[in-house]
Amino acid sequence: MLQPSTLTGPPSLFTTTFPTLHHQFQQNVRDYPDTLALICPHQPANLYTTRDEASSTRTKNPSASSLRWTYAQLDEKIERFVASLRRRGIGRGSLMVLFATNTAEYVVVTWAAYRIGCVHVPLSPRCLGHEREAVHMLETAVGACRPDAVVVVAAAGSGREDVLGRVAGLVRGLQLQVQCWLIAMSRGEGGVRDGWVGFEELMRFSKPGGKDVQLAPEEQEQEQEEEEEEEEEEEDRRSDVTQLSDDDSRLSDDSLEQPQPQPQPQQQPQQQQESSIFFTSGTTSLPKGCFVQGAAFCTTAARASRADPRHPTRPGDRVAVVLPNNHAFGYQILMAAFLNAATVVFPGEAFVSERLIETIRQERCAHVALVPTMVHALKGVAVAPAQKLDSLRRVVLAGAPPTEEVLRICLEHLGAQAVENFYGMTEGIVVSTGPVERLDEAVCGRDISIGRPLSGASVRICAKDSRVPIAVGAVGEVHFSGPSLIDGYIGNRDDEKFYTGEDGHRWFCTGDKAVVGEDGRLYLVGRYNDTIIRGGENIEPSAIEAVLGQTAEFHVLEPQIVRAPDNVAGEVPVAVLRTDVDEQLARQLKDTIQTKMGALFVPAGVVPVSALGLDDYPRTLAGKVQKSKLTELVEAYWTAQKSQARSKLYSRAMLGSKLRQAWAQASGLNDATMMDVNVNLAAYADVRLLESIKTQIWKDMASNVTLSDWLAADTVAEEMEAIGASGQAALASHPNSRLIESLLAAIASAKGENMDQTLRMVDLGIDSITSIALLNQIRQESGVSLPSSLFFTPHTLGELIERLQSSTDPANLLDIDPTTQETPRECFSTLIQGTPKPGVPSLFMTPPGSGYAFSYEPLPKFANDLAIYALGSPFLMTKSAATWTVEEAAALYVQTIRKLQPEGPYLLGGWSMGAILAYEEAYQLRQQGQQVVGIINLDMPLPRPDPHVLEPTVKLLEVVGFYPAIRRAGKPDMEIPSYRRQHSLASVRAKLKYSPRPMCTASDDPTPVRIFVIWAGHGDPDRLPAVLVEADEILRRCGPDTQARTSQEWLQTPRESMGPGGWAEMVGEENVECRVIEHAHHDTLMDPEVVEYTARLMQVAVDKWLS
């Protein structure tokens, strides 16, 4: 008889009810009062500290510059916040909504919600950008709870993000009929809006002299009643709950090998337990609400990690938490750590790969939870063999199925002792491999195990739309049952997914396909539903379709979003349209999604249904589109297209390389890679020999092309087209063909297929995070690990291909030096928009201190198709990166500008340091007899050398806050690369030494040079010297490894003077015009809304000057 696909976890220790989270936390406070509970390197040590606490001897490291709270201290903070809320009428049955990142405040509010008896609803601040979803989630929570009061806690956000305003607007729209408190988590009272109460104000409520503050009689009565209710409920639980100790977790081997179904703890009514509401994407564009009972959900995970015989979580173990707190996985990891009396470590408010590695190393973290895309990002952080993370005992993976490569990175690159693959869902599913130390413990062939159910839980595999387990080895749908399972979705949405089985237990149909292997472990195969998981983030196709449906030109095309396989992200969305579309409309479709939803949701491709061999979508009898059939067709088409595109890219690259080599050899050129395939061949050979060289190459390489067509080709590019059109067989491969093909495909996926092989790799504009993904893709496909510096070298793409062709060992690429010893001779330039026109000046934008040309990419399109060139620093990848002067850099920029536009008049501009360089460029152009119409200065006053200013260093600038993480929608935060940090340092040094000269001294030309200054209304760059001194004092006091930062007030302080900023001394007051943007300096070109306004002001200047 075939064995059914049923797996049961170890017996649960709790036969009736679970101990409350509050009870378990209080037990830890009593048992481990001096154990660190929370570490936040990004928050100050004295946050919400009372006088008594500051003088207490319990703090083991009083000189620490970052927040470090023991369990006793955290408990005191929670109690203080609870008391303040109770004094304001907040009690059991209230709703506690959070819009917060990973901070100490989130921890305090979460535990306070459970202590009071509020329903805890954590929402991501990012959801505020999707108003329909945000409103739906708030309405769902309010409707499900019918609260007596609502508390909304939100982080104030940065100056450019009006988080509080958005939240207040959403709450007003709910038209609540109950008391509502808005609490702002701001740094200082200046960030609190009208209608909001500051978090700091609530934390001032204390117990002087060890006694509670005297409450009004009715308040005392309410508080006493609530405390008595809590005590009674806790006593009931204690009578039912098995006492917790380490010995209790040691189950017998027999019970583990032959688990038997156990009576599940009874679930109490939702409003009588510690409840949280989490949201999970459904089959519609609106998320579904889940009442999660924290006691069962978190205690199950906590007990499993505590009981592991090889890598248990012990009291005082440090657990690094970087996952979003509004995701069930992140919440479970966080709470399980507290239940085990471990130390939660927040490296920052969000994930940054370098910061996480540094925090694990400095804080000696033993555990960390990640999604696979985070692991790929960590692979790009250099970890030398001697610097492996030797404290790291366990990496927990969830969010998306990991690959073998992900497991290998955890064990080998990071140096973790074990890795755990956790399969969970917001609905309460808990399945895990437990920590495994070897790949073969989790990998079977190509499949990665997701393990077995945790204690008290069961899994069975059933045929689709069936509730009967199928045989072991057969693929079916995962059904789950256990004490952590929710009763159903709020509002009974998709209620058919939940059912009561013949065993009397509640079961859930997950929609996931899996198989139980002969080894008794569960292996995930795929999904029955349409959800696309792109890098661990869920994407609902219907949400994208809804946005496109709001645009008339797309609505008529009946767009369908389906998934397609991807080597890096796992899956990507693809848009299928009912009719053929041109490239311009496809780009418009992607831009629409980018603007309205963010980069995460942008389709990787736009495919007409005709390309799938159909005249219309596959439909049901009722006329509905069959998404499953359409997905299958797209997956097959996508795979075939990728293969064809790769082959075409490779053939074209190889053909171009061969032709250039042939021409170089025939004409005596030394370097074939410097031949431009679009330049007339007469430039490379004597006209008298041109025809004979062409004929010889035709005989050797192009026999399928008619001689007349061959001789008519004037460039290498035209020769390549002629060979391609002739149908000539592909060129012979060589040992590195697959690697070259993979390299070209990776670059094409990021930058498009029209690649110029004479372009330097560094000029491709591939950032650090993208390079990690591309190198991982190349490694998976070719088996070759290329160096991380590959995309930041001054070598051209053609040179790298030539090098690979001439070598049998791709390891020769490993010695590529990303920098060059030579003094640069020119700078990089790129046309970011518009069309250059004779007689019309182009606008040349000089880069800011980072040297990064693509800083100007966010600028929207200007009127009249104005051509805008962005210049890249010539010193960005050179050994002389820290020694250049403003005059030297400007000379190279001028040289490039005059190559692109030989004669004036010129339009120049720059942001920050770029504005100073633009002025010097104008000065040098005037010296050369050229006319300069004007300079657009984005927020930079006239520099004035000061010999007494402290010499800056990278560390000093880091403490000042010069290198904030680059935040990108749908992607992990990206640290500014080290070479750009070095360049920023060189820029600051150059600025501090630069003495600008009045424009009238450049030439006798009386024509004025006008300067249009666009000031950021917040920030005072003149205070930089004083801030450098403050940073130096911090370094002296705290040491070079400190995470402390100077006050950021100087970046946000309203600017007192909006005048010419000193530039009138250079060009005359009548030639300086100023405008103001009421935002901070970085917002000028980094915040989408502010960039729009910046561009409009730039357009005003251009229109004035060219009219």
From TrEMBL:
Q: Where is this region: Disordered?
A: 208-275
Is the keyword Magnesium assigned to this protein? no
Database matches in InterPro entries: AB_hydrolase_fold, ACP-like_sf, AMP-bd_C_sf, AMP-binding_CS, AMP-dep_synth/lig_dom, ANL_N_sf, PKS_PP-bd, PP-bd_ACP
Q: What domain of life does the UniProt record list for this protein's source?
A: Eukaryota
MF term (GO), any = phosphopantetheine binding
Q: Which SMART domains match?
A: PKS_PP
* Entry keyword set: Ligase, Phosphopantetheine, Phosphoprotein
Q: State whether keyword Disulfide bond applies.
A: no
Q: Where is the composition biased (Acidic residues)?
A: 218-235
> What are the recorded Gene Ontology BP terms?
fatty acid metabolic process
Indicate the segments forming the Carrier domain, all copies: 734-808
State the similarity comment: Belongs to the ATP-dependent AMP-binding enzyme family.
| Annotated protein name in UniProt | Acetyl-CoA synthetase-like protein
State the species of origin.
Answer: Aspergillus japonicus CBS 114.51
